[in-house]
Design goal:
single chain, 468 residues, paralog of FGE (formylglycine-generating enzyme), 22% helix, SUMF_dom, SUMF_sf
């Protein structure tokens, strides 16, 4: 027995030497990684700066005393997230929900798996059946093959094909016109998505946007790291209605005619490149999760590793980026004035005691308007205020860390907004001015932009790569 054991040990040792490492400690390499600039983003090189009011606190807020802090390098969107970009998120959620309902109805009607794309000419609801449905007969009740019908698609099914499991079928195009509906089960599903006739007018058939919900999970890493409890206790589930609140154009202003903005701002092509508004802090967070999911889905199909998550910027990151490398500046362009040497306003805000038109804009302007700062970031002051991933506390500057400071109290629903907007006076455009709004509130003057952590040295990045 002892001799046999020795032979096994020798054979194992010889096998380990066959790996090409010649018995040396070479480490285990991870996936091949090269930093890539995400499409539409710019690299903000990390560094230290003096955060807070560098001049007089004319409003007497006393909530931003100066403090030297350091932030790591990160990518940031060059512009605020636009209506067009946010609409991509909304449409993806809408299509996911429709495809799941069609697949569930196909299962209920007795269909098998999807037929590899199906097509819509002379097809049926079976064209939208779950991919892999024929390979999975484990029905545990509640929806299609054990799926809970109250779950949104990304909770239960992968958006990409997995032959060992069911996944949504994205091959056939969704038929939106009633004349194109292929069969009665398809009609039943679509009738659930649209509002009933009594809630529509002017001959339009409107969708019930309250059904467009995005569901995702994340872990409260900070709470988990400070405790020794069960991991599952720190996994948090969120479900968020993603469609912007277009009524903010009415509710934010009394005795003001803003119906055209309510009707057209998010949906009309004329406003595609304008910043999205009417989005709460929670909706902005959901967008970040989806953007990560969407990007990683493509990379998985290409056999590439995951990207680092997209997220809202920390308050310190936002101010550091807004300053554009200018120490002690009042505005992203320096200052202390809001006009250039030719008398032109440098941002979209409410100048001259309420003369909205003086800066050539009544409401918002295109996200890529005015001159960018030294980091190539547009409208860090004015146009729309921006959500950041920090809770508001008047004295937070007194106790936060000097390295990547972050104050995000889960119980504090007041979230910081920065930059000022089209309806604000110049004071709120100052890079050091702090303001807040409640996380579940949406406004006609608050939007957001996203960031992504950077790995590596700034000089390693090729800044002119195509979208990945």
């Amino acid at each position: 027995m002892k001799r046999i054991f020795s032979i096994v040990v020798v054979m194992s040792f010889l096998a380990s030497c066959g790996g090409g490492d010649r018995g040396q400690l070479v480490g285990v390499k991870g996936n091949d990684f090269h930093p890539e600039k995400p499409y539409g983003m710019t690299l903000v090189p990390g560094g230290s700066f003096i955060m807070g009011k560098s001049d007089d606190d004319v409003a007497g807020q006393k909530n931003a005393p100066t403090k030297t802090v350091t932030v790591s390098s990160f990518y940031m969107d060059e512009t605020e997230i636009t209506n067009s970009e946010y609409r991509q998120f909304v449409n993806w959620v809408r299509d996911s929900i429709v495809r799941q309902r069609l697949a569930e109805e196909a299962e209920f009607a007795g269909g098998g798996g999807a037929q590899g794309g199906g097509g819509n000419n002379g097809g049926s609801i079976q064209d939208f059946a779950f991919k892999g449905a024929a390979n999975n007969n484990n029905n545990n009740g509640g929806g299609a093959n054990g799926a809970n019908s109250n779950q949104t698609p990304y909770q239960q099914y992968s958006i990409h094909y997995d032959p060992t499991n069911q996944s949504l079928n994205w091959d056939p195009e969704i038929l939106w016109e009633t004349a194109d509906y292929p069969d009665e089960p398809y009609v039943r599903v679509m009738d659930e998505i649209f509002l009933p006739p009594e809630q529509s007018y002017n001959g339009e058939r409107l969708m019930d946007v309250t059904k467009f919900k995005y569901s995702y999970k994340y872990m409260d890493i900070e709470a988990a790291a400070r405790s020794q409890g069960n991991r599952k206790d720190y996994i948090i589930k969120e479900e968020v209605e993603v469609y912007p609140d277009t009524t903010v154009w009415i509710k934010d202003f009394n005795y003001s005619y803003n119906e055209p903005m309510h009707n057209d701002y998010f949906s009309h092509a004329a406003y595609d490149e304008y910043p999205v508004v009417g989005v709460s802090w929670k909706q902005a967070k959901a967008f970040c999760d989806w953007r990560t999911l969407y990007h990683n889905g493509y990379r998985k199909e290409k056999g590439l590793g995951n990207v680092r998550v997209y997220r809202l910027p920390l308050e310190a990151e936002w101010e550091y980026a807004a300053r554009g490398g200018l120490e002690g500046a009042t505005y992203p362009w320096g200052g202390p004035y809001s006009k250039n040497d030719r008398g032109c306003f440098l941002a979209n805000f409410k100048p001259l005691r309420g003369d909205y038109a003086a800066d050539q804009a009544l409401y918002t302007v295109e996200a890529e308007s005015f001159e960018p700062n030294e980091y190539n970031l547009y409208n860090m002051s004015g146009n729309v205020s921006e959500w950041v991933n920090s809770s508001y506390s008047p004295d937070s500057y007194q106790f936060y860390s000097s390295m990547n400071p972050s104050v995000n109290d889960k119980k504090n629903k007041r979230k910081v907004v920065r930059g000022g907007s089209w309806k604000d006076v110049a004071y709120f455009l100052q890079v050091s001015t702090r303001d807040y709004e409640y996380s579940d509130s949406a406004r006609s003057y608050i939007g957001f932009r996203t960031v992504q952590d950077y790995s590596g040295n700034s000089g390693d990045v090729q800044l002119n790569q195509p979208p990945q």
